[in-house]
């Protein structure tokens, strides 16, 4: 898909969301992973899959930062009030996007995790 | 990811285990949610890993911890998807299915020292996946949302862990 965000884009976006400086160092990668539970490469792949395999891309207003909100929620599991101060959005808006994205990632289960149920 | 990747004809293709997650006490109170692991309410999920590739190939749940033992969850679903003669590597909670569909450390099919060491490493590797899942606070802490949301959160975490395994963070080799 054209114009897919790069790994560097996700790294910069993720670290700026949590007010941390961004560069190519190992430390930045560790900071990113400790906030979101996975590396920027995984986020990039996840974004690509949910956009191509789920109906989430048809939802108006979807932005890459919403995926990071969901990952931040899954990793830190803060209360909505605390999370919304990080996302700089209202609690209602944060809640809406976090659960929409979580549902979309969960829907990738059939694509990413499969035991190949039908014996050939 | 297919469990038959790199299959060399072994009867065991996957390792199976369950993991419990804390939830808030549902109302009205019932013992069906009781998890002996937390001495409190929880939900149980079954995970299977491909032995050869180390990928997550199966997620099943959630089940009420007090109502469903590991082996009952296995009998309820995964067992019906195994090929004829296929078995799974599991811990002693599955000994009731030994030797027909499971290989367990306490079973009589586990005899040689070398085989037992291999199986110990296999089960340790499975625990690392549980550990990676519990790195997510949503699964480690007591879940504050609805039970339906818990299923989505667990599956989302499992998908992320599996993508990480595929994209450069593999489990240790056996």
Protein architecture, described:
With 120 residues, chain A is mainly α. Chain A has one domain. Chain A has 7 helices and no strands. The mean pLDDT of chain A is 89. Chain B has 174 residues and is of the alpha/beta class. Chain B has one domain: Nucleotidyltransferase, domain 5 (2-Layer Sandwich). Chain B has 4 helices and 6 strands, in the order E-E-E-E-H-E-E-H-H-H. Chain B starts with 11 loop residues before the first strand and ends in an 8-residue tail after the last helix. The relative contact order of chain B is 0.17. The chains are: A mainly alpha (120), B alpha/beta (174). At the A-B interface, helix 3, helix 4 and helix 6 of A face strand 4, helix 3 and helix 4 of B.
Number of helices of chain A: 7
Q: Return the CATH topology of chain B.
A: Nucleotidyltransferase, domain 5
**Average pLDDT rating of chain A:** 89
H and E order of chain B = EEEEHEEHHH
Kindly state the number of beta strands of chain B: 6
Question: Total number of β-strand segments of chain A?
Answer: 0
What's the CATH architecture of chain B? 2-Layer Sandwich
Strand content of chain B: 15-25%
User: Span between N and C termini of chain A?
Assistant: 33 Å
Instruction: Tell me the fraction of residues in β-strands of chain A, as a range.
Output: under 5%
Q: Per the principal axes of the C-alpha atoms, what is the gross shape of chain B?
A: globular
The largest interface is: A-B, 29 and 38 residues
What count of structural domains of chain A? 1
Q: What is the string of SSEs of chain A from the N terminus onward?
A: HHHHHHH
Q: Whole-number radius of gyration of chain A?
A: 15 Å
User: What is the CATH class of chain B?
Assistant: Alpha Beta
Structural class determined from secondary elements of chain B: alpha/beta
């Amino acid at each position: 898909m054209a114009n897919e965000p790069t790994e560097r884009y996700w790294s910069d976006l993720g670290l700026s969301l949590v007010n941390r400086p961004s560069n190519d160092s190992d430390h930045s990668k560790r900071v990113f992973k400790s906030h979101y539970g996975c590396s920027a490469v995984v986020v990039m792949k996840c974004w690509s899959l949910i956009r191509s395999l789920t109906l989430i891309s048809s939802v108006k207003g979807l932005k890459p930062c919403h995926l990071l909100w969901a990952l931040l929620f899954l990793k830190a599991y803060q209360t909505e009030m605390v999370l919304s101060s990080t996302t700089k959005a209202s609690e209602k808006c944060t809640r809406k996007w976090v659960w929409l994205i979580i549902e979309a990632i969960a829907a990738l289960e059939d694509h990413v995790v499969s035991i190949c149920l039908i014996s050939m | 990811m297919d469990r038959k990747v790199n299959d060399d004809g072994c009867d065991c293709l996957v390792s199976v285990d369950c993991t419990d997650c804390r939830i808030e006490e549902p109302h009205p109170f019932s013992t069906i949610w009781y998890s002996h692991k937390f001495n409190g309410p929880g939900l149980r999920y079954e995970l299977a890993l491909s032995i050869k590739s180390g990928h997550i190939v199966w997620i099943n749940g959630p089940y009420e911890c007090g109502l469903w033992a590991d082996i009952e969850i296995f009998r309820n679903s995964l067992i019906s998807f195994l090929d004829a003669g296929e078995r799974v590597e599991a811990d002693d909670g599955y000994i009731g299915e030994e030797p027909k569909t499971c290989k367990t450390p306490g079973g009589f099919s586990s005899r040689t020292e070398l085989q037992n060491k291999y199986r110990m490493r296999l089960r340790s590797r499975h625990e690392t996946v549980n550990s990676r899942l519990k790195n997510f606070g949503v699964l480690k802490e007591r879940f504050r949302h609805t039970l339906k949301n818990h299923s989505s959160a667990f599956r989302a975490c499992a998908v992320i862990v599996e993508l990480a395994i595929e994209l450069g963070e593999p489990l240790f080799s056996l």
